[in-house]
Design goal:
1 helix, 108 residues, mainly beta
């Protein structure tokens, strides 16, 4: 499993590849999430049936943050952008740590 470092804390990242995994993601999870979710080759996402607030980051091919959507509630759309190649979802507790233009480093 991969992880990222946030303020000397490791956050586990689940990479979702199949259609079923991407569709399910964190939908209908009532417990507060403590891990992140990485969607390869995905440009947009909706937050229908997310039972909690999350931070959504749109990344380019080099994992540089293009857009940040912080503390997004349920039933919202994050529309496709031209340069976006991947999406990263993190818990809302990681608020204001990453900014637009930062490069996210994944560790094994």
């Amino acid at each position: 499993m991969d992880y990222i470092k946030v303020k000397n804390k490791k956050i586990k990242i689940n990479t979702l590849t199949s259609f079923k995994e991407k569709f399910k993601s964190i939908r209908f999870k009532l417990d507060t999430i403590t891990e992140g979710y990485f969607f390869k080759k995905k440009k947009g996402i909706n937050t229908y049936f997310f039972c909690q607030r999350v931070n959504i980051y749109q990344l380019d091919e080099n994992n540089k943050i293009i857009r940040c959507y912080l503390n997004i509630k349920t039933e919202k759309f994050v529309f496709r952008k031209r340069d976006v190649r991947n999406i990263l979802i993190l818990p809302s507790s990681v608020n204001d740590y990453f900014k637009q233009g930062d490069v996210i480093a994944f560790y094994s």
